[in-house]
Amino acid sequence: MSGMQPVRGTKDLIGDSFRRHHHVVETARHVAGLYGLEEWATPIFESTSVFARSLGETSDVVSKEMYTFEDRGGDSLTLRPEGTAGVCRALVSNGLTQGGMPRKVFYAGPMFRYERPQKGRFRQFHQIGAEILGAAEPLADAEVIAMGWQIIQQLGIDEGVVLEINTLGDSVSRDAYRTALIAYFTQHQERLSEESQDRLAKNPLRILDSKDEGDRRLVAEAPTIHQHLTPEAATFYASVKRYLERFGVPFRENPRIVRGLDYYSHTAFEFVTDRLGAQGTVMGGGRYEGLVGEMGGPPTPSVGWAAGVERLAELLEETPEPNRPVAVVPVSEAEEGAAIDLVQLLRASGVPGEVAYKGNLKRRMERANRIGSQAAIIIGESEVAENVVIVRNLADGTQERVGLAGLLPALAAAGVVDAMLEQMVEEMELAADEGGADDE
């Protein structure tokens, strides 16, 4: 087909793809509420300095992947490439760093990165995320990880997903580790990729993230941070692992998980799977100490994670069922007023309903089948006169004439009304019975 197409690296969420996306976000939103998180929504674009500070001027995201532009006032703005920086900026700019800590925040929304589109990776993508701001205790690390694991379980995608954890230690541990890495990689400098040679001078921890095969062989023999942990850092890490066991979250240790920026500390973790090919991480995060300070706030120990909605949605075994409204079908234009009254009654009762707009009875029934209705309520001239309707079960073709008081029970019998509405029906029937008893 000709016509305009979506921009490369973006996609429309319609039908099955939207229902999968919506199911992931709503499931995460529900679980986050169980853990006491409050949802925040921050702007889709921020001052460029928000991300340059949080991600590092030399990071690939800042140097190569951000959508940055100058607005008409001459300010440099950037479409957000991730969510944590905006949450930390909002904490500071809304004056929330003093009282009421820790703040437990959930967020969901689109992010933007200019990178080569591939399976599971888009230029506009969506993330859910959680941050516990102002909590220095290892229990916070374990709880935020447990929440992520519960989301994965409730989505039914936990099979084949593994939690990998590591520690980045405290600042003293990292300084000692950085010195050890520089000494090790300097011995093999001529075998490093050009990019990793550059990182050796600026941030040797980022060499551990290299995708270059030659680098990876060297990384496999590199020292680990566990050999350089202070007693305090080792105790913190042991506590996180103990709490994870108490929460019932299985994990394995991976000493190669790192975060390149200086304000990351202690816990680093990823939920990984081999079901997405190269894009193996479905949720990742860790503890950070200095990010709120970068935004002009006080030192605020925090921990959190982010997860790609598209990747989680791809792992779903089944697409959630579409909304299947009850079709209210007037036999002719003369009954449309009664049909409108009836569909509004259904909606007020929590039952989704739709009126077929035009055509003869056959065409209106075709519309009912096309939208996947489980039942159709047919209203003709005689039904209006007698204050009844015809309820047709579209699954098996059976139908019955019922009065309006018996409509919800008839829909329940047809399998249309959900459990909540079935309870409402029972209460209506009980009230009717009690009214009858009073009449006697």
From TrEMBL:
Catalysis: reaction(s): tRNA(His) + L-histidine + ATP = L-histidyl-tRNA(His) + AMP + diphosphate + H(+)
Location in or out of the cell: Cytoplasm
A cellular component term, taken from the record's GO annotations: cytoplasm
Gene Ontology biological-process entries: histidyl-tRNA aminoacylation
Single GO MF annotation: ATP binding
Alphabetical list of Pfam families matching this protein: HGTP_anticodon, tRNA-synt_His
Record-annotated Aminoacyl-transfer RNA synthetases class-II family profile domain positions: 1-330
Keyword Cytoplasm: yes
UniProt cross-references to PROSITE patterns, sorted A to Z: AA_TRNA_LIGASE_II (PS50862)
EC number: 6.1.1.21
Top-level taxon: Bacteria
InterPro entries: aa-tRNA-synth_II, aa-tRNA-synth_II/BPL/LPL, Anticodon-bd, Anticodon-bd_dom_sf, His-tRNA-ligase, HisRS-like_core, HisRS/HisZ
Record-linked CDD domains: HisRS-like_core (cd00773)
Keywords: Aminoacyl-tRNA synthetase, ATP-binding, Cytoplasm, Ligase, Nucleotide-binding, Protein biosynthesis
Residues holding L-histidine: E82, G83, T84, R113, Q127, E131, R259, Y263, Y264
KW Aminoacyl-tRNA synthetase (keyword) present: yes
NCBIfam families associated with the record: hisS
Family stated for the protein in its record: Belongs to the class-II aminoacyl-tRNA synthetase family.
Subunit structure, interactors included: Homodimer.
PANTHER family for the chain: HISTIDINE--TRNA LIGASE, MITOCHONDRIAL-RELATED (PTHR43707:SF1), HISTIDYL-TRNA SYNTHETASE (PTHR43707)
Protein name: Histidine--tRNA ligase
Species this chain originates from: Teichococcus oryzae
